[in-house]
């Protein structure tokens, strides 16, 4: 992967993975969080969910942690209207500090591993604290060739039982979960497809063309199996 070309493609996108504000609202309602909280968005990307969290929790202090400077700048600009209540820093999400009442991690925990990441975050949680994370999940039933090909680079893919087992190994309980499938993926892939078309029109070089081709293939595989490709949004607490 040519990373300069990757970030050229991803510059200015509203999200860096599937999801929507309803995911945030569901999680907060389900776990009953409100008031003067400390919240961390680990791997916040350009700040889509961090912005929603800040809107949904007007009394909370929020910290976005992101390893990529480009996304840090985008998230800072996006959340600047919240003032000092929302900070975005370049850092390692494995060591977020704390203590936090909620660690939110949309589509990024797989960089650490579910068990490894939750273990690392245990001391970052306040008493009674929660982790909400989304993780690729294998849906029950037969999978099409497109779905299998879509996940071929993620060998850790399991059904929900496998995710629950990885959570348990870190000393947490899965309290609830819901599937992210269909429309929330379109909120990511729609702007990405538009950006690909924009860059295609600019006569891109070989390296950028390769990145555009790879992303177009990913989108095409999702479109061929959109009802079979999902994340699980998991709500977990230390046991």
TrEMBL record:
InterPro entries: Methyltransf_12 (IPR013217), SAM-dependent_MTases_sf (IPR029063). Residues 41-131 form the Methyltransferase type domain. Transmembrane segments: none annotated. The keyword DNA damage does not apply. SUPFAM superfamilies: S-adenosyl-L-methionine-dependent methyltransferases. GO terms for molecular function: methyltransferase activity. It comes from the Bacteria. Keywords: Methyltransferase, Transferase. It holds the Pfam family Methyltransf_12. GO terms for biological process: methylation. Signal peptide: none annotated. CDD domains: AdoMet_MTases. This is Class I SAM-dependent methyltransferase. It comes from Ruegeria sediminis. The lineage of its organism: Bacteria, Pseudomonadati, Pseudomonadota, Alphaproteobacteria, Rhodobacterales.
